[in-house]
Structure formats: structure tokens, C-alpha cells
Specification:
The complex is a heterodimer of chains A (about 200) and B (about 280).
Chain A: H1 3-6, H2 13-29, E1 35-36, H3 48-57, E2 64-66, H4 73-82, E3 95-99, H5 100-103, E4 122-126, E5 134-137, E6 145-147, H6 153-160, E7 167-172, E8 175-179, E9 184-186, H7 189-198
Parallel strand pairs in A: 2-3, 3-4, 4-7
Antiparallel strand pairs in A: 1-8, 5-6, 5-9, 7-8
Helix pairs in contact in A: 2-3
Chain B: H1 11-26, E1 32-33, H2 47-56, E2 62-67, H3 74-86, E3 90-91, E4 100-104, E5 117-121, H4 135-143, H5 148-161, E6 172-174, E7 178-180, H6 190-193, E8 199-204, E9 209-213, E10 219-221, E11 248-252, E12 259-263, H7 266-274
Parallel strand pairs in B: 2-3, 2-4, 4-5, 5-8
Antiparallel strand pairs in B: 1-9, 6-7, 6-10, 8-9, 11-12
Classes of the chains: A alpha/beta (about 200), B alpha/beta (about 280).
Chain lengths: ~200, ~280
């Protein structure tokens, strides 16, 4: 066991996780906004934002899937010590962690059932940057918002599953953004306006 | 402050509630089941709202609690004091100063802004419950978007009374998908649910459900083309501040039928009175 397995958690879990949750909630309630989140110092390849989200939401009741390079000894040991979350494959996870390339294709994750659409996975995606980008419309967004997304088609397909589907948290350094299943993703702003006009 | 964990609940419970809130925000209007805890107050006193508030509060929040619009009723005072003691948060009665507002059966008159969170106490979260008592059936009805029964109920209102007589807990449809109970707010408040800048969270403790409306969500009160929804209130100005645009409580003031109408939102009424507005019954 390495020393950094034991360190890097919240020093004051009750208040730090409260602040971290508010960042996550604001991000999920206002898709496209970029929030700061801090307090965690997990070992690489986990980012501070990723670590804080996992500390805030995961425990022994939440199966976690570590995708690709995230599935390493350092990440497993740190998460096991700080959250106690069991590690599972993608088909049974509540949270999945990885880069976009490692997490895709999305068909393997639970999307909920028509009677319990909440029983679906949340994907925590490591991004190299968070910035303005693709146009978003939907609940939580006044007029429209924009966010840099790794691709467009996968999120458009996910939207068609509503109320089933996956929810996404994008992390980069100490910042995060989110994309719930309810958000419409368009390629360009003119497409978004055409969509708004049609509905 | 050292006797309790921050905001009373233990961390594992808060994580469970927080996960439910996030799913609720992702599926607006859908009731997410959660493992409601026993709280140090009876069911029916806002245990659902209290648990949601406990999960979202941070030490830097300013907390306001209203009960039917009033800051100074027993339920509001006790919940406000509860979080003052267990979370050490600042409290206020001013709507504009609050970052988290827990409410029983009203939406404040003053429009809420971004950065605020409105937490509703919900007794019966299932809008179809009085039409279909079986949870297994109402769950199926939501999954199949089978809401005909609700329209039949509103139609029966029209047959019996000549108009839709449902005056509170008036059902709404969220983003064209889920029919939702807005909690027993008067239907006067229903238009405020739509396109609100604040985050709206609903907690039902006894019934173990959490649901949510993200900001700027489309919320439509159910109605018929020939009987459109109408947000109604008592047709009087407020006796204390003279407001004509606020929801009013009717007070009986003597035993010979005397009555007066006053704003149910005490903060709204007091701010107006302080600004010099005066109603006909003001001293």
C-alpha cells in the first residue's frame, strides 16, 4: 500500500462534501455551466474534480466501474480506502469513471427501467478541457447554453431514450460540468434555434 | 455544534439523498425513491423537506423557512432553529437574502433568482394516489404516460361544479412527460413553477420520495381548451399592505362575521408596509 492511498481525502468530510455536492448539483441543474470543485487530492490518473465527485457520491452501496487506464492499482486502492465502493463491470455499475474513449460505447451501461428510470448509471468523464462548444437546450437552460463535448451523436442518441438514459459529469482539473439525459444537444446554434421553433 | 454531525444527518444518509436529488434533476418531475430516515419531528411536519435541506446546506448558506408563507409559525420557527443548531447556518426571513428556502405550501411572492434553492415539504407526492391507491399501478401509469384518469378527475370537477374546483395541489405536467404534484401550494402559485430561476427540490419523508425541477423547466398546469387553467385568489387587496397581486389569507376577526384579507407571504407584506404601502385595515 502506498502512502498516497491514505491521504488526499476530505479533511473535513461533512462540510467539504456539502460544498462539493453543491457544485455537482448546480452543474446537473444548469447543464453547460462550469463549476469549481475542490478538496480532494487523489493519485493520478484520477483528477482532483473526479476525486471530489467520487468522495461526495460513492460509498459501499454504489458499484463503480473503472474504465481503461483508470483501472489501476493506485485508483482502486484510493477509492477502496476512502469510499469502500465495490468495483464491478460496466453492466452493473452506478458510476463509471474514465476518459471518453475508454467509456464508450455507451450501450453496455444500465439506463434504468421504464418504472425506475433513476436506476441508471452516471458516467464521470475525464476531459482534457472544459469550455464553450456544442449548443445545449432543455431543462435547466435559459434559452441555450454551450459546452465542449467529446462527441455529439452519442448524446443525441441518449436523449432519445428519455426518461431512460445516462447522465454525465465531465471533469477537468478542479472543474466540472454535467449533462443530464434531459438535455438536447445540437451541432450548431442554428440547429438549436430551428429545434426550438419546431417544438 | 459538536453533538451532531453537520446538518444532523450522517454522511452516508446525505450521500444517498444527494444521489436521489441528482437523478431527480436529470428526470424532471419523476419521483425518485429514497430511504427516508426517522427525523426528530413527526411525519407531516416536513421531514422530507428537512432531509433534502440537510443534504444541500453548506455552512455559508442563509436559510429561510416558511409555513403557508409565514416565517413566524410553529413549523417554520422550529425547522429554522433546528438547522441553526445542527448546521450553524445563518437564518433570515427576507426572501431575497436567503440561499436555501424551505417551504410548506407556498412559493414566495418575490421572484426567486439564480443561486437560490427552494425546498418543498410534500405530504403525498403521487398526484394519482387518490385516484389509484396501488403504488404498483401508479408506477405503471407513469411509465406508460397514462394520465387519462387525471383528466377524468378534472372533467368530473367541471360536471359537478361548472369549473375545475381543484384549488391547491393542482397537478402539472413537466416538460411534456411526467404529471407531478406541486405539493399543496394554492393554484395561484402554479405559474411560478414554470421557468423559475431557482432550483426546486421536493421532499416527501413519510412517502420516501424526492423529485425536482431544474431552473427554467417547462411546467404546465393541466386543463382543457374550453376550461383553461386559471390562477385564482381572493378578490380583495391586502388589508395590511394594500397589495392586489399577492395570495391572501382570510382572517375572521370577531364573532359577528367580520373578516380581513392579508398577504399569506409575511415577508412580502412587511417589506411593502416598510416601504409605506398601507391597506384599509392597517393600524
Amino acid at each position: 500500500m502506498q502512502a498516497n492511498t491514505l491521504s488526499g481525502g476530505f479533511a473535513d468530510p461533512a462540510t467539504q462534501s456539502a460544498y462539493a455536492f453543491r457544485s455537482v448539483m448546480e452543474a446537473m441543474a444548469r447543464p453547460g455551466t462550469i463549476q469549481d470543485i475542490e478538496g480532494a487530492a487523489p493519485p493520478a490518473p484520477l483528477s482532483p474534480a473526479m476525486g471530489a465527485v467520487l468522495l461526495t457520491l460513492c460509498d459501499t452501496e454504489t458499484p463503480v466501474y473503472l474504465a481503461g487506464d483508470m483501472d489501476c492499482e493506485a485508483a482502486r486502492a484510493w477509492l477502496a480506502f476512502h469510499t469502500g465502493a465495490p468495483f464491478v463491470g460496466p453492466a452493473h455499475c452506478m458510476f463509471a469513471v474514465g476518459t471518453w474513449d475508454a467509456l464508450t460505447p455507451l450501450a453496455v451501461y444500465p439506463i434504468g427501467t421504464s418504472e425506475y428510470p433513476d436506476r441508471s448509471a452516471t458516467l464521470i468523464v475525464a476531459c482534457s478541457e472544459l469550455a464553450a462548444g456544442t449548443t445545449l437546450t432543455g431543462p435547466g437552460i435559459k434559452d441555450q447554453a454551450t459546452l465542449s463535448l467529446p462527441e455529439v451523436e452519442a448524446f443525441q442518441a441518449n436523449r432519445t431514450l428519455f426518461p431512460l438514459g445516462l447522465d454525465f459529469i465531465f471533469t477537468c482539473g478542479e472543474r466540472l460540468a454535467a449533462l443530464p439525459r434531459s438535455t438536447e444537444v445540437s451541432r450548431s446554434s442554428s440547429e438549436a434555434i430551428a429545434q426550438a421553433g419546431a417544438s | 455544534m459538536t453533538e451532531y454531525n453537520f446538518a444532523y444527518l450522517d454522511e452516508q444518509t446525505k450521500r444517498m439523498i444527494r444521489r436521489a436529488i441528482l437523478k431527480g434533476l436529470a428526470i424532471p418531475g419523476y419521483q425518485v425513491p429514497f430511504a427516508s430516515r426517522e427525523m426528530p419531528m413527526p411525519y407531516g411536519w416536513g421531514t422530507g423537506g428537512v432531509q433534502v435541506s440537510a443534504a444541500v446546506l453548506t455552512p455559508s448558506d442563509t436559510f429561510k423557512v416558511i409555513d403557508q408563507g409565514a416565517d413566524d409559525t410553529t413549523n417554520a420557527v422550529s425547522i429554522r432553529t433546528f438547522f441553526q443548531r445542527t448546521a450553524g447556518v445563518a437564518t433570515t426571513t427576507a426572501t431575497s437574502d436567503a440561499t436555501v428556502i424551505q417551504t410548506r405550501h407556498r412559493i414566495p411572492e418575490e421572484p426567486l433568482h439564480e443561486g437560490q434553492i427552494l425546498v418543498y415539504q410534500v405530504p403525498i407526492p403521487e398526484p394519482l394516489r387518490f385516484l389509484e391507491p396501488r403504488e404498483s399501478e401508479t408506477r405503471k401509469m407513469h411509465s406508460l404516460e397514462e394520465y387519462g384518469l387525471m383528466h377524468v378527475k378534472l372533467y368530473e370537477d367541471i360536471i359537478r361544479h361548472g369549473h375545475i374546483a381543484t384549488s391547491y395541489a393542482y397537478p402539472v405536467k413537466v416538460e411534456g412527460r411526467y404529471v407531478m404534484d406541486p405539493s399543496p401550494i394554492p393554484k395561484f402559485d402554479n405559474p411560478k413553477l414554470r421557468d423559475m430561476a431557482a432550483i426546486q427540490l421536493f421532499g416527501a419523508g413519510r412517502e420516501q420520495r424526492i423529485y425536482a425541477l431544474p431552473p427554467y423547466t417547462q411546467v404546465v398546469s393541466l386543463d382543457f381548451e374550453d376550461h383553461p387553467f386559471e390562477a385564482s385568489k381572493a378578490d380583495h387587496p391586502c388589508g395590511m399592505c394594500g397589495a392586489t397581486d399577492s395570495y391572501l389569507d382570510e382572517l375572521i376577526i370577531d364573532d359577528i362575521g367580520g373578516r380581513m384579507f392579508v398577504c399569506s407571504d409575511t415577508d412580502y407584506c412587511e417589506v411593502r408596509q416598510a416601504a409605506g404601502h398601507k391597506g384599509k385595515d392597517a393600524a
